[in-house]
Write a structure and sequence with these properties.
CATH superfamily: P1 Nuclease
Radius of gyration: 17 Å
Order of helices and strands: HHHHHHEHHEH
Distance between the termini: 57 Å
Largest sheet: 2 strands, parallel
Low-confidence stretches: 14-22
Mean pLDDT: 84
Number of domains: 1
Shape: globular
């Protein structure tokens, strides 16, 4: 059944994600909430039950990152921001490169073997497999936590891959080096604008 949920979540996240969606907190929350709403009630309940077993420190981390009360129950849409919330934690720093794939300007298409590890396309494959089949030889609690992490990672990765600048050019770091200035936004570079500010319009101060 877990394998079925993994495949279903993957398909729904892929379908509801579109290239126009930016991937800041709100972008990830929208993508995952839409996917969740398209699941059957049975699978919604399975995901909700799985998220109830998130360790307390990570529940607090997710809620803090999303400006929620620390004891607020974790919903799938908020859980999908976890992969960004952990970026500064040493234990998870190795995952920072998994959020994107940088290519050369000469690249005209992305092949199946564009990268073999530590990049966004492989991250999706890796965590879909881990969600469906937790590693053998671990304790029950360790397997459960691995499944939970895989679910949260998978939701996040399938949002990231639909943000155009998460698969982009290495020489400008996916638009991070492209300075951006617009009186209606706070974002200072093109990647930041696509990640967040495309969703918002700041009011001008008279």
């Amino acid at each position: 059944m877990t394998k079925f949920i993994a495949v279903t979540v993957f398909i729904l996240l892929y379908v509801v994600s579109t290239p126009k969606n930016a991937m800041g907190k709100l972008g990830h929350q929208i993508v995952c909430q839409l996917a969740f709403e398209h699941l059957s009630e049975t699978n919604q309940n399975k995901i909700t039950a799985l998220l109830k077993d998130i360790p307390t420190q990570h529940k607090r981390l997710i809620n803090h990152y999303n400006y929620k009360k620390e004891d607020k129950p974790i919903t799938f849409d908020n859980a999908c921001t976890w992969a960004d919330a952990i970026k500064r934690i040493e234990e998870y720093r190795s995952y920072n490169a998994w959020h994107y794939l940088n290519v050369t300007r000469a690249s005209t298409h992305i092949s199946e073997n564009e990268c073999s590890k530590n990049c966004l396309p492989q991250a999706i494959i890796t965590h879909q497999k881990r969600l469906a089949n937790p590693q053998v030889g671990q304790t029950k609690n360790e397997k459960k936590w691995l499944q939970i992490q895989s679910l949260m990672f998978l939701g996040h990765w399938l949002g990231d891959i639909h943000q155009p600048l998460h698969i982009s050019f290495a020489d400008d770091m996916g638009g991070n080096k492209v300075k951006f200035s617009h009186f209606d936004t706070k974002c200072g570079n093109l990647h930041w604008y696509w990640d967040e500010c495309i969703f918002y319009k700041e009011k001008k101060v008279n």
